[in-house]
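Translate sequence into structure tokens.
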Amino acid sequence: MATNTISLLPIPPCCRKTQSYLLSHPPNLKPGVLVTSFAGTKLSIRPTSHLRRSTAAALAGLSRLPTSKQGDSSEEPPKWSARAIKALVMGELEAHKLCYRQTGTESLLLGILVEGTSLAAKSLRANGITIFKVQDEIVKLLGKGNLFNRSPSTPPLTKPAQMALDWAVDEKLKSGEITVTCMLLGIWSVKESAGHRIMATLGFDDEKAKELAESVSSILRLASDLAS
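Result follows.
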């Protein structure tokens, strides 16, 4: 009687390290564990708690932001929209990825685009301002970060970035909370900042800023009319 046999092909040299690594580090697919893609011949496994720590650190930083330019401690802490919080967190992460020691207005601008769902992000994309274009302009303007000078996981804000967020806190565009649009217009308000210069280079101007602010006002009026 014929016997079925299976021929085992030799494992190519390029895969042996991967096989050895997987045998000694079996993928853990339990909840709370993120398995990333292959990087060379190694499998990188990182817990999602790292991302939670980054988010928690950014949220802790929000509590240190001033409630107004006057610094009136009697005021209630400003309310941030979920999208604005995410845009700020993404901005810090982008600064870290670029190996910058601080989070500037240019990184906040990137964070707004990475978050991507806000009216401000949609307005930027409609005007041809994309993540890749902003990244290119950042490198042209500020140069590449030093790979050997490790960036903090949550790089602190530069003075212009703090000024942009101060503007956002003070304005709030009458919505009662700090939105991504407030952040973007805050960046635009700091004329000498890297974020403003990059936006201007890519075609953003005062007229587009005014249109964005008016769009928010129209949405707020419509929401108020529907609620009444």
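Note: The chain has one domain: 48-64+78-227.
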